[in-house]
Design brief:
Helix 5 runs antiparallel to helix 6. Among the domains are: about 5-110, no CATH class; about 115-210, no CATH class; about 315-410, no CATH class; about 545-645, no CATH class. It contains 27 helices and four strands. The protein has helices spanning about 5-10, 15-20, 25-35, 40-55, 60-70, 75-90, 90-95, 100-105, 120-130, 135-150, 155-165, 175-195, 205-220, 245-255, 260-270, 290-305, 315-330, 335-350, 355-365, 375-440, 545-550, 550-560, 560-580, 580-590, 595-605, 615-620, 630-645; strands at about 115-120, 200, 470-475, 485-490. The radius of gyration is 49 Å and the shape is extended.
Length: about 650
């Protein structure tokens, strides 16, 4: 006889009841557990599971009791892991037990029992099975990232194997080939097992964001009333439910005892009463996931409803909008969300100028098993034509915004300079006035009248009179500069001279010399010649600028061996990666803009026309152009491949 009745089970919290009566869970039991058990064992294990539901036993106590029923180790492990994962894992919060750790302790993989799981869980399972211990935390973290790329189908087996066996200095792990192949096999088996169990692996950031939004939604919702403690009835006795039948019977008896007139009055009173508002139906918590696209659409609808002008978008928001519009306009449909994310990433890299048209098209035509999109050439050409048009529009809008911001910045700086100049001149004037006051002991008087024009002296003719005649000196009373000239005249200059007196004879001024005197001006010392066309080479500010300004001559100075030179470039980028991922991205972009990489791209484009690489190099050398040799071209090709997928 069953230990718990159906009425007792209905007293459990609703999520526990839903789990117990879940059809999919019962099908799993019928397929995976019941074939391994006898009828008697099945009844005992069912009672043990209900003990856990009613919290009469813990999951650990359940495992101990299960061990007493099933003695075989293999059968016990399979049944225990299946019940923990299929049944108890979804009730971990209700049971307040770390079911995930119990599954691991019994040799199981908790990721198999999820519908969406973070990739770190699958990586941890592969690492546990491989038992590879790495003392260097940096190399261990690198190994986790390589395994993540394989489990998310970003890299294929060949690329992962090259990284696992590669040198630590070149972003590898340094494993021997048998160990690397065994680790790769474990990762492939884990991927197949998860696919078999319909488990979707997602990046850790995406999973954590979903969990955070779900917790925030649960926190923002109305507080649920505490569940009543389950009351266990004695075995074989049902728990009675309050159905309200007695109250209905009493109302029926009262109505039947009324007369017809009383019944009519009661009905009229009920009709005359205002209708009470319908109670609001409580909303059931929906376990939905709000994506970033949903939040963006909600914000846009809120702006339209409020009628407010949309704020200026940042560059990151403009990039996201441009990428989303390009993906939607491409007309491609994706049944697999991982393939859609891969295409969105390729478009984003193209818009950010981290991949050119040739590399993006190669990604589109690459098989899906190798990390590409698997498009044919015609479809890839159509998509690239669309992306080229949209990226030109996007970069033009970004450039116009940058130009406007630059003009605004220059105007502000000019205004600041003018204000600073006026303030400096004012301070200088005040300092001079203060110094003058200290020296003279008085305040500086402002000029009452404007400055007078300069006085021009006018030559006067001085008459010469006879020595016998008396002379007088006239001094004009006017104080004007022109009236200050002294005139010597005879006393009878105003009246006609009397007879017998000599007449004044004006003395003419001496005639100017025929030839003006020559003034000798010493010759100036000749100025030193100005040296032109001398350019100042700015000093390098860091690894990013060093990579961007690297010429072919600089590349060859790194080492005579091109492969060794590329390793030094990789070390510089690894140093930037230790600072931040953004610095590493900036370093890679700087290298792609360098002169050396441009020579590499020129040779690569020329080789796509069907010509031999050696012929192209020989032709450029004959013209005297700077060009990479074959060894340098191969080394840079390998470097770019590692930077792209490493």
């Amino acid at each position: 006889m069953a230990k718990y009745t159906r009425q007792q089970i209905k007293t459990l919290p609703q999520p526990v009841q839903d789990n117990y009566f879940d059809a999919d869970l019962n099908d799993r039991y019928a397929e995976e557990i019941y074939p391994l058990l006898s009828v008697e064992e099945r009844e005992k294990i069912t009672d043990l599971i209900l003990d856990v539901y009613f919290k009469a036993a813990t999951p650990s106590a359940f495992l101990a009791s299960l061990r007493e029923i099933i003695k075989d180790d293999g059968r016990f492990q399979k049944i225990a892991i299946t019940i923990l994962g299929r049944d108890f894992f979804k009730l971990a919060d209700y049971l307040n037990v770390d079911i995930r750790q119990l599954i691991i302790d019994n040799g199981g993989d908790p990721v198999r029992f999820l519908t969406r799981a973070p990739v770190r869980e699958a990586v941890a399972q592969v690492r546990r099975k491989s038992a590879i211990a790495l003392s260097d935390e940096r190399v261990s973290h690198r190994l986790n990232k390589i395994l993540e790329s394989r489990l998310l189908n970003v890299r294929n087996d060949e690329q992962v194997l090259n990284l696992l066996t590669g040198s630590v200095k070149t972003s590898g792990i340094g494993l021997d080939e048998p160990t690397a192949k065994a680790l790769l096999l474990l990762a492939s088996e884990e991927s197949k097992d998860l696919e078999k169990n319909a488990v979707a692996l997602v990046p850790d950031e995406e999973f954590d964001a979903e969990q955070g939004r779900a917790k925030a939604a649960a926190t923002a919702g109305p507080a649920a009333a505490p569940e009543p403690e389950p009351v266990a009835a004695p075995e074989g006795q049902d728990i009675q439910e309050d159905t309200g039948i007695e109250e209905e019977e009493e109302e029926a008896e009262e109505i039947s005892a009324m007369s017809d007139e009383e019944k009519s009055m009661a009905v009229a009173a009920i009709v005359a009463q205002p209708a009470a508002p319908a109670p609001e139906t409580p909303k059931k918590d929906a376990f939905t996931t709000v994506t970033v696209e949903d939040e963006r659409e909600i914000q846009q609808l809120q702006r339209k409803m409020s009628g407010a002008a949309s704020p200026e978008l940042t560059e990151a928001e403009k990039l996201t909008r441009a990428v989303d519009e390009a993906v939607a306009a491409s007309g491609l449909t994706f049944a697999d969300p991982d393939i859609k994310r891969r295409f969105t990433t390729a478009v984003s890299l193209f818009f950010r100028d981290l991949r050119d048209s040739l590399e993006t098209k190669s990604k589109l035509t690459m098989p899906r098993g190798s990390g590409g999109m698997g498009l044919d050439d015609a479809e890839a050409e159509r998509v690239m034509a669309l992306l080229d048009a949209r990226v030109s529009s996007y970069r033009g809008s970004i450039q116009s915004g940058s130009d406007a911001a630059k003009q605004q910045y220059l105007a502000m700086q000019s205004e600041k300079v003018m204000i600073a100049s006026d303030q400096a001149q004012k301070k200088e004037t005040e300092a001079l006035d203060r110094r003058y006051s200290e020296i003279t002991g008085g305040a500086v008087a402002a000029p009452a009248n404007p400055a007078l024009p300069p006085v021009q002296s006018v030559p006067k003719i001085i008459p010469v009179v006879d020595a016998a005649a008396p002379a007088e000196v006239r001094v004009p009373a006017s104080s004007e500069p022109e009236a200050m000239n002294i005139e010597l005249t005879s006393s009878a200059s105003k009246a006609p001279p009397p007879a017998g007196l000599p007449v004044e004879k004006p003395v003419e001024p001496p005639a100017p010399p025929a030839t003006p005197p020559q003034i000798q001006i010493p010759a100036l010392t000749e100025a030193k010649p100005v040296v032109a066309d001398v350019k100042f080479a700015s000093k390098l500010l860091g690894p990013v600028e060093e990579l961007r300004s690297m010429t072919l001559k600089d590349f060859r100075r790194l080492s005579r061996d091109p492969h060794e030179a590329t390793l030094k470039i990789t070390d510089k980028i690894d140093l930037l990666k230790e600072e931040s991922f953004e610095k590493r991205t900036a370093g890679i972009k700087a290298w792609q803009e360098s002169e050396t990489n441009r020579y590499y791209l020129e040779l690569l484009r020329a080789s796509l026309e069907g010509r031999q690489m050696t012929d192209i190099i020989s032709e450029k050398e004959a013209k005297g152009e700077s060009v990479l040799n074959k060894a340098e071209f191969d080394a840079i090709m390998e470097l770019n491949r590692k930077l792209r997928f490493g």
